[in-house]
Amino acid sequence: MLPYKELARMDKLVHEPARLSILTALSACTLAEFLFLQELTGLTKGNLSSHLAKLEKANLVVIDKHFVRKKIPQTTIRITADGRSAVERHWQQLASIHEAIRKQGAHVHLSESKSIQR
């Protein structure tokens, strides 16, 4: 299969840039507070909430809403084992596709230079 076709077949839930950013950030820590994750990703509250809801529905993250000192709301998010596997697989697929494209490009480039030399 051509590597370009593989790009189109990647998991769109994970591949979407905001969700990829969220999952990648969460894969680097045990859990993150909502506001920290918002700052880290640069997403608006509404946008982050929307993407987190999709990731939670797919069982890639767990969201915990609770109160600190009985009155301060706090939302924490952690990546699940499925989420960690999905984001790791995604980055591995991207690296593999990128390498295949680079090799293909080098092959095309070598073929072109041989035809020019003749």
Automatic annotation (TrEMBL):
InterPro entries: ArsR-like_HTH, WH-like_DNA-bd_sf, WH_DNA-bd_dom, WH_DNA-bd_sf. One of its GO terms (molecular function) is DNA binding. Keywords: DNA-binding. Residues 19-97 form the Winged helix DNA-binding domain. Gene3D superfamilies: Winged helix-like DNA-binding domain superfamily/Winged helix DNA-binding domain. This is ArsR family transcriptional regulator. It comes from Melghirimyces profundicolus.
